[in-house]
Specification:
By secondary structure, the protein is an alpha/beta fold. The chain has helices spanning 4-22, 45-61, 76-83, 97-106, 142-151, 166-178, 190-198, 209-217, 265-279, 282-290, 300-321; strands spanning 34-38, 65-69, 91-96, 118-127, 129-134, 157-160, 183-186, 204-208, 221-226, 253-260, 294-295. It has two domains: 34-126 and 253-321, Bordetella uptake gene, domain 1 (D-Maltodextrin-Binding Protein, domain 2), CATH 3.40.190; 129-226, Periplasmic binding protein-like II (D-Maltodextrin-Binding Protein, domain 2, 3-Layer(aba) Sandwich), CATH 3.40.190. The protein is built from eleven helices and eleven strands. Strand 6, helix 6 and strand 7 form a beta-alpha-beta unit.
């Protein structure tokens, strides 16, 4: 015979079972559009690779992938926005050498810490920077550029994609190695840095190939050297800095996908898996090569180790140059 206590216990158990059954299931990620912030202007290298990847990523995730350009402060503005964003799996960042590594050394007061407030997802791609001048400058080689700067002190300006960018640091190191001088003028993207050359606002730049080569092919600019240790297969006719007589100057401009530090690891790993698969697709490789970029990929841990190595490598160079910002 059921006692009152037993009936009560059965009632409670039944009620809890019903409540569990009625509780809304956690939505499967992603259940809404995913945002990727690019901390540079349209047409910049991170913007280009983000849009190539986003097209395939939206198909694989079953949700729209929205690219949002947030340029400013050499990439620090957009990178800082993502660092302070909620780690809900719907906001990511694709940024570069400067905002993710170098600026932690350059800036005395950086508004975010990329090593603690951002979580590595994947190293997406890399490319050479190309040093170039206007075709009608009369300069035909890197040695010629150095000679012109020495003969005309104070008359050369160079453009870059922002303070702390590789496009600035490479030239600053060149100036130290050759005892030359040129004024740095930063821009929000590589296309704008190239436009400054074409308009005569600056005399040269060492910026990503994607912005330089079309102007070279159009006969408006002349490429002098690439920043990588070896000639790029995508630009085989352009000599390296080493071939031009500057063996200690070599670097690669890279782009990495990051997430707010509190983003769940399973979402980070899913994004890593999907983008690795995308970067391996033949049509994606072709699109990136057409933009003079190499797809990279790898694990979350690979990117984490890579960023630490970049910090160890570049810190003494930045200190030697004496580059600091408030």
């Amino acid at each position: 015979m059921l006692t009152l206590r037993k009936l009560f216990q059965l009632f409670v158990a039944g009620t809890l079972t019903c409540l569990v059954g009625l509780a809304p299931a956690q939505p499967t990620w992603p259940s809404k559009p995913v945002r990727i912030v690019v901390p540079y202007g349209p047409g910049s290298s991170p913007d280009v690779i983000a849009r190539i990847v986003a097209d395939k990523l939206s198909q694989r995730l079953g949700q729209a992938v929205i690219i949002e350009n947030r340029p400013g402060a050499g990439g620090n503005t957009g990178s800082g926005v993502v660092a302070k964003s909620a780690g809900d799996g719907y906001t990511f960042l694709i940024s570069t050498n400067g905002p993710l590594v170098y600026n932690t050394v350059i800036y005395k007061k950086l508004s975010y810490d990329p090593f603690t407030e951002l979580k590595p997802v994947i190293l997406a791609g890399g490319q050479a920077n190309v040093c170039a001048v206007r075709a009608d400058s009369g300069i035909t080689s890197l040695a010629g550029l150095i000679d012109a700067m020495k003969k005309n002190p104070g008359k050369f300006n160079f453009s870059s994609t922002g303070v702390g960018s590789l496009s600035q640091l490479g030239v600053e190191l060149l100036k130290v190695k050759t005892d030359t001088f040129a004024v740095h003028i930063p821009y929000a993207s590589s296309p704008l840095a190239i436009t400054a050359i074409l308009q005569g606002d600056v005399q040269f730049a060492c910026v990503p190939a994607v912005a330089v080569i079309p102007q070279v092919k159009a006969g408006k600019m002349r490429a002098l050297a690439v920043s990588t240790a070896k000639r790029s297969q995508l630009t085989p006719d352009i000599p390296t800095m080493k071939e031009a007589g500057l063996p200690e100057i070599e670097s690669t401009a890279w782009m990495a996908l990051m997430a707010p530090a509190s983003t769940p690891q399973d979402i980070v790993l899913r994004m890593n898996q999907e983008i690795n698969a995308i970067l391996a697709l033949p049509d994606v490789k072709d699109k990136l090569h057409a933009q003079y970029m190499e797809p990279l990929g790898g694990s979350v841990e690979d990117l984490q180790k890579f960023m630490q190595q970049e910090l160890r490598t570049m810190t003494p160079i930045i200190r030697r140059i004496g580059l600091t910002m408030e």
